[in-house]
């Protein structure tokens, strides 16, 4: 799945961490594609563009789901306009991401 060979000398913890992040990335991008294919007037599309007002504690950085998805698409070199074609979108996000820093 990650194309990690035993000769690469990754610890089990590192392989598990990468698998979990790749799986999360895939789930987030699948949901993003699902929402982008919805009608413009869909409640999901409208909610996706909302900004929540208010303050966060100083400890937490302001990193939204949209920003995370945007970073993941940038890492995978895909654009959101590709989400219109479900089959192509699924194919783009399903490939493992070797050499991508998680």
The rounded distance between the terminal residues' Cα atoms is 15 Å
**Helix count, per DSSP?**
4
Using only C-alpha atoms, the radius of gyration works out to 16 Å
Would you identify the regions where 5 or more consecutive residues have pLDDT less than 50?
98-102
Overall number of structural domains: 1
Number of distinct beta strands: 0
Shape, principal axes of CA atoms: flat
Order of helices and strands: HHHH
Beta fraction: under 5%
Share of helix among residues? 40-55%
For the biggest sheet, the summary is: none
* Secondary structure category: mainly alpha
Oligomeric state of this protein: single chain
The average pLDDT value, as a whole number, equals 78
Describe the structure in your own words.
The structure is a single chain. By secondary structure, this protein is an all-alpha fold. The protein has one domain. The protein has helices spanning 12-36, 43-48, 65-75, 86-94. The radius of gyration is 16 Å and the shape is flat. 10% of the residues are buried.
């Amino acid at each position: 799945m990650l194309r990690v060979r035993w000769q690469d000398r990754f610890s089990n913890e590192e392989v598990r961490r990468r698998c979990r992040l790749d799986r999360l990335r895939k789930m987030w991008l699948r949901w993003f594609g699902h929402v982008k294919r919805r009608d413009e007037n869909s409640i999901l599309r409208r909610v996706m563009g909302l900004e929540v007002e208010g303050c966060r504690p100083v400890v937490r950085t302001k990193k939204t789901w949209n920003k995370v998805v945007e970073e993941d698409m940038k890492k995978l070199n895909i654009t959101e306009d590709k989400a219109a074609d479900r089959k192509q979108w699924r194919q783009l996000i399903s490939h493992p991401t070797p050499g991508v820093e998680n």
